[in-house]
Amino acid sequence: MTARHRNPSPASRRPARPTAGADAQTEPGGEDRVQPDQRPATLDECRRCALWHDATQPVPGRGPRRAAILLVGEQPGDQEDKAGEPFVGPAGGLLDRALVEADVRRDDVFVTNAVKHFKWFPRGKRRMHKTPAQREVMACHYWLEKELASVRPRVAVALGATALRALMQRADVRLTANLGQPMQAGDLTVVPTYHPSFILRAPDEASRQMAYAALVQALRLAGRIAEKTSAP
Ligand code: URA
């Protein structure tokens, strides 16, 4: 990405950028570098990978301090990057609809992403989504772990393959082979399902409906698991 395409952001929201060359990650060609030894205290200070550089701001998870259900997406999109909140754009709209249908209240769930900065590439004036590299997902697992430790969910819904790999901490786990089947990651039950953006991009109405039904079913299942495992 060139400086020309960097997203301007309110100065109050982000720390000063190091000058060019002061931070090896920000140099051309350094965009995929990770620094897993860094242990930042806040997301604003995070330089564990280079994605912070072209994002407006980090997007932390949002929801109750404690929640039985955690929803994990891939990374913030264009609108989330600007708003600083997860799932507020078109994918969020579809997720909201599916939650209503599954009888799960969004206010009761903690919603987050595997990667906390928007990774994008320019196309004209638009910022297009770019899938994060596995090493960026692993670098950002530092933050997902913190969210899991403080929210202490009983069940996590993995929205798409990136979220599933992040939650299972395995690069080889396949979404399609495990779709809708609860998996264990230690004490946490993980329900893998389609990402809302995948559903929005479905090539035809029949596949869209099929994928949407799978998402609703996964959310409903997460609701049942959360209820079943709650204290009597
Ligand atoms: N897609 C995601 O994975 N997360 C968001 O927050 C928005 C879109």
From TrEMBL:
Q: Where is the composition biased (Low complexity)?
A: 8-22
Keyword Mitochondrion in annotation? no
InterPro entries the UniProt entry points to: UDG_Type-4/5, Ura-DNA_glyco_family4, Uracil-DNA_glycosylase-like, Uracil-DNA_glycosylase-like_sf
Known CDD domains for this protein? Answer: UDG-F4_TTUDGA_SPO1dp_like (cd10030)
Q: One short Pfam family name for this protein?
A: UDG
**One GO MF term attached to the UniProt entry:** deaminated base DNA N-glycosylase activity
Disordered as annotated region, ranges: 1-41
Q: Does the keyword DNA repair apply?
A: yes
Gene Ontology terms: biological process:
DNA repair
Could you tell me where the Basic and acidic residues compositional bias lies?
30-41
Family matches, as SUPFAM superfamilies = Uracil-DNA glycosylase-like (SSF52141)
Q: Which residues form the signal peptide?
A: none
Record keywords, A-Z = 4Fe-4S, DNA damage, DNA repair, Hydrolase, Iron, Iron-sulfur, Metal-binding
Q: Which residue range or ranges hold the Uracil-DNA glycosylase-like domain?
A: 60-220
| Family to which the UniProt record says this protein belongs | Belongs to the uracil-DNA glycosylase (UDG) superfamily. Type 4 (UDGa) family.
**Xref: PANTHER family:** TYPE-4 URACIL-DNA GLYCOSYLASE (PTHR33693:SF9), TYPE-5 URACIL-DNA GLYCOSYLASE (PTHR33693)
- Mind telling me what this protein is named? Type-4 uracil-DNA glycosylase
Native source species: Bordetella bronchialis
